[in-house]
Amino acid sequence: MKNRSPFSERPGFLAVTLVLLIGAALAISSFCQGGTSVFYSIAGPTFLRAVDNNYSPVAIQIQAILHYATSRQTPQQSRNEIGVSFQVLKSRAPCNFLVFGLGFDSLMWASLNPRGTTLFLEEDPKWVQSVLKDAPQLRAQTVRYRTHLKEADQLLSSYRSKRSCSPSEAVLRGNTECRLALDNLPDEVYDKEWDLIMIDAPRGYFPEAPGRMGAIFSAAVMARRRQGSGVTHVFLHDVNRKVEKAFANEFLCRKFLVKAVGRLWHFEIPSSANATHGDGSRFC
């Protein structure tokens, strides 16, 4: 999700981002002029018919519109990839939305979940400070990962030997024995049930990077342990990469994959109480 290099200017993508934000805010037609056809292609006419002229956009939505209108920084995901998550947020917001990664698209995600809880988990404390300096209303926490990308194959082949990693036993908080479990997250992460989980971090493109193995495993554990009604929507980006694809197949399960667009996979994972996930020894 994070990219410290300046983004190239992409006017078409900027227009789409603006339309998404405007639609989510149900803002007045002055913002929508010239973008209706684009918005129709993503949000659909049903959402536009729901416009309430008395609705007042919240502050973060207005800031997001101004930010993307005046910045060359655009979200990392493509228009069609963003549209997948947007369709779910449109029906679930306000909701609990957990995002692995903090980047140029964070203000957009938070503004698409008005009056909900959107929490970002980021590995680099300096980057957190830098982003929050310009967008202090975002909620972000620093996370320490225990894995390295170069360990991915070994972690995938050996986790079944650890009872603390098994589908029936795995928990996250304090689970130091299972290296795939994110055991030291902020209490809020463990105490809430997350309706949507976006995995677009940590870094996973060089051997010493943390990789997304722990994030994928932990998202699966959170979804399986859900107590409330409904499924957990998990969005995994960069599935063109070997590790992301392998760990998604192992823990998020192909049978729960409902949509694949570009480099994004969307899973709807039921709790273990409401579905048969496997034979008890495997997640899938």
Give me the number of helical elements. Answer: 12
Numbering strands along the chain, what is their spatial order in the largest sheet?
3-2-1-4-5-7-6
* Order of helical and strand elements: HHHHHHEHEHEHHEHEHEE
Low-confidence stretches: 3-15, 24-55
Percent helix: 25-40%
Provide the gyration radius in Å.
19 Å
How far apart, in Å, are the first and last alpha carbons? 27 Å
Share in β-strands: 5-15%
Whole-number average pLDDT?
A: 83
What's the story with the biggest beta sheet? 7 strands, mixed
Number of strands: 7
Strand pairing plus helix content: what structural class? alpha/beta
Q: Tell me, briefly, the overall form.
A: globular
Question: Care to describe what's here?
Answer:
- It is a single chain.
- 38% of the residues lie in helices and 13% in strands.
- It contains 12 helices and 7 strands.
- Helix 7 (106-111) links the parallel strand 1 and strand 2 (117-122).
- Helix 1 (11-25) crosses helix 3 (36-43) and helix 1 packs antiparallel against helix 5.
- The longest helix is centred in the N-terminal third of the chain and has 15 residues, at 11-25.
- The relative contact order is 0.12.
- The model is unreliable at 3-15 and 24-55 (pLDDT under 50).
Topology:
Layout: H1 11-25, H2 29-32, H3 36-43, H4 45-49, H5 59-70, H6 79-92, E1 96-100, H7 106-111, E2 117-122, H8 125-134, E3 139-142, H9 152-158, H10 187-191, E4 196-199, H11 213-224, E5 232-237, H12 242-252, E6 257-261, E7 264-269
